[in-house]
Design brief:
Blueprint: H1 3-36, H2 38-41, H3 45-66, H4 82-90, H5 99-106, H6 123-136, H7 138-153, H8 157-161, H9 174-196, H10 209-232
Length: 247
Amino acid sequence: MTEKELMKSYSVIYRTAFDANNYYQLLMQYYKYGKENQKIFKFSPAFWVISKNALSYACLMQVAKLYDKSDKSIGIQLFFSKDSYSYLSTLKTENVITKNTLYIFFEIPIDTNDYSRYNDLSIQKILGVLSQRKKDLKDQIELLHKYRNKGYAHNDKSKVLSPDDFKDIPPLEKETMKVLIDFALKTCRVIRYYITGSYGTDAYSNIDDIYGLIQLLQFGMYEQKKMEDCWSKGINYHPPTVYESGD
């Protein structure tokens, strides 16, 4: 691959990981606020259920793209390819990565009394550490592939017609998805920094949108109750006026 093709591919991988993380964070809000605000979620159950299912599917498929084993796909395996290794090894950059950086991102143990943790690491060393961490995730990645291939991408007959055949496959837990997303996104951000000097972000700054939506729904339900109480007493109901700021 040419340098231009590699840079475009890196951008695609980062965007895929970024999207997966946003989908995951929204899903976690569903689980969190769904328990705390069951009345709100019953307000429009079809919307909440369909949205949650769509996010679940989108999240899994984005993560599956990141860990696709095909040589023709664009996933994090590209970072460890011969072309990528050659490009990063010869790249002239003033952006440095230390043991301390890898500790902060990946919680890789280091000796706190070892001042060499602040020394620059070669890209070969960095890729070696990240490659080993990816190997440590082998079981989680294989489980992801099973769910993606059997149930989501190809919809095997055996899964539909003989669901008992899947009894022995462990569930794909939220924690597993979190680990896979974190590794992919942090790998992207470390490589991105090495090339550009910027880590980028891991999620939208206003990703906690479901909480705001719930607050609006609570306000709407409160006003609806006031309106019904007024009508039952023969009193005119005056809805609150919303002023738009001119700032």
